[in-house]
Amino acid sequence: xxxxxxxxxxxxxxxxxSLYAGQITERAAKPYDVYQxxxxxVYTANHVALGAAGVGxxxxxxxxxxxxxxxxxxxHVTLTATDTIEFSAGHIALDDAEMCxxxxxxxSSGAYTTIQGPIVTNSAYLKVPMPETGKTLIGLxxxxxxxxxxxxxxxxxxxxxxxxxxTISDVYTLPxxxxxxxx
Length: 183
Hints:
The chain is α+β, with helices and mostly antiparallel strands. It has helices at about 1-20, 30-45; strands at about 45-50, 55-60, 60-65, 70, 75-80, 80-85, 100-105, 110-115, 135-145, 165-170.
């Protein structure tokens, strides 16, 4: 009887140890997956907006009405409110029924830039553009052109476009505390 209880106890301990380690299935986390997750967590912690920027529009410009604090490239920066943020050079105009996201970013010096996501014709394929290293995404501008219609950055009105639907959103997170303990 003692032998049976000892074997059952060892089997239970092995079962619970495998659950705790996350290796109960063949799809358990690979070392590279854990490395990638840690890398993304570190990037996110070093590039985050801690408050809403109040992104808006005025004629062909984007505006920031608040003064949020962002972490850009591991540097805390308080952004300045402005009403004349132009789209960065090199963006492609959208034509009939095309759509994409434009991202408004800030860097560690407090300068604003925009990035453009891929242009698609089906909203299921819309992707948020990834900012370059050292830049923090603080706002999104979703542009959906009418059919027929056209949207040209820095030319078409963002505030009241004639042939496009524009949705502007703030991108920010609240600080969280991660309590990680080694296994």
